[in-house]
Write a structure and sequence with these properties.
about 375 residues, alpha+beta, four-stranded antiparallel sheet, disordered C terminus
């Protein structure tokens, strides 16, 4: 069976084959993380078999709105981007950075043990693949490599899923981030669900993926299977709930003092939900904890948000004291100055910031509105002598 598996190969699995794939990853010592239903949402957690996946569940997403519903089939991946991406497994919400302990000679400072068990991410959407690539560039691409991220990223097996059911807030197609996975995966799945059929088309994306699939029972797809998968992806691209003109953010950035920013500030709660669910945001802060006896201290890194007043605090106070300035910083950094820093947009079009905004602020609508207002030249008064 191994002779027909190579990088770029297309293979077909039935439901039992998907279960065998999960089992093979676990047999190789990997903790498999995939989507599960919990408390009315789809989250990522450890899975042991195909029975743990959210078969037959879909979702409704709009500005400030998320609801699960039962589909009329048993699709395993018939939902859009779930509330959380994969960031928490690579860039945890809390990370121990250093520990100091009192000794007879002073203090002994120790770095934490960064050994991490091998994992497999199962069901990564194309938008989240792009987000992981963006954070790779942030944490690994410069002269200073972030050690916690590097340790967690070193041995991740990625099983991607091409999206066939975009949500009402999705706009990855207009951001060039989906709905099909274009790279960064070991295996990519496209689910083919129809009358009497529940199969998965598998694209092999790496030698590691080929090695795994050689141990999983599979068969070869027909030309009709491949055409079906392509049609599903094309249909998803055509039915995105939102879109964003890629030139709009630069035009919006020319309107830094537009009254629309005041309107946004009136609606925005500065809660930071958008940054917490964003798969690319990486703002953080540190906190020190000392034992009551003063013999031990720890420094932790925690997620933070550019909507927090203290994030821009310098010696004289916060640089961005108003909600208006903080929202403007977030929006234009995400869509404009991120490109200046890292050569790519900081947005992958997953739509989470729209879905999970308590007041339903729509990033795509706001950018379009600001971009449509062409910056007006300053009017100079003519002085008559």
């Amino acid at each position: 069976m191994s002779g027909d598996v190579g990088v770029g190969a297309a293979l077909l699995l039935d439901r039992r084959g998907v279960d065998a794939l999960i089992g093979e990853l676990r047999r190789r010592g990997r903790r498999v993380i995939g989507p599960v239903v919990r408390d009315g949402v789809i989250v990522h957690d450890e899975i042991e078999s195909v029975a743990d996946l959210p078969a037959g569940w879909g979702d409704e997403q709009d500005g400030g709105h998320y609801r699960l519903h039962r589909r009329d089939d048993d699709a395993l991946f018939g939902f859009a981007a779930p509330p959380e991406g994969w960031k928490r497994y690579l860039f945890p919400p809390r990370s121990l950075l250093v520990t100091a302990r009192r000794t007879d000679d002073g203090f002994a400072v120790e770095a934490p043990d960064l050994e991490v068990e091998p994992v497999a991410f199962f069901g990564v959407r194309s938008c989240d693949l792009q987000a992981i690539e963006i954070q790779d560039r942030v944490f690994l691409g410069g002269d200073a490599v972030e050690p916690v991220y590097a340790a967690r990223r070193a041995d991740v097996f990625v099983v991607a899923v091409n999206c066939a059911s975009p949500g009402g807030t999705c706009f990855c197609a207009s951001m060039g981030a989906g709905p099909a996975a274009s790279g960064g995966f070991d295996l990519a799945l496209t689910e083919l669900v129809g009358p009497g059929r529940q199969d998965v088309l598998v694209e092999v994306g790496s030698e590691a993926g080929a090695d795994v699939m050689a141990a999983v029972p599979h068969r070869h797809p027909t030309a009709e299977d491949c055409a079906w998968a392509e049609a599903l992806i094309a249909g998803a691209a055509a039915t995105m709930g939102r879109r964003l003109d890629r030139g709009a953010p630069r035009r919006a950035a020319a309107n830094l003092d537009h009254p629309r920013w005041d309107d946004l500030a009136e609606r925005c709660l500065a809660c930071g939900n958008c940054t917490m669910v964003c798969p690319t945001c990486f703002c953080s802060t540190t906190e020190d904890r000392t034992s009551l006896g003063g013999d031990e201290a720890e420094r932790w890194r925690t997620w933070e948000s550019c909507f927090s007043l203290d994030l821009s605090h310098l010696h004289g106070g916060p640089v961005r004291a108003s909600v208006r300035s903080r929202y403007r910083q977030w929006l234009l950094h995400k869509l404009v100055t991120w490109e200046d820093q890292f050569g790519t947009s900081g947005c992958v079009g997953c739509g989470r910031c729209i879905t999970w905004c308590p007041v339903g602020i729509d990033l795509t609508a706001e950018i379009e509105a600001l971009a449509d207002e062409v910056a007006r030249p300053v009017q100079h008064l003519e002085v008559h002598r």
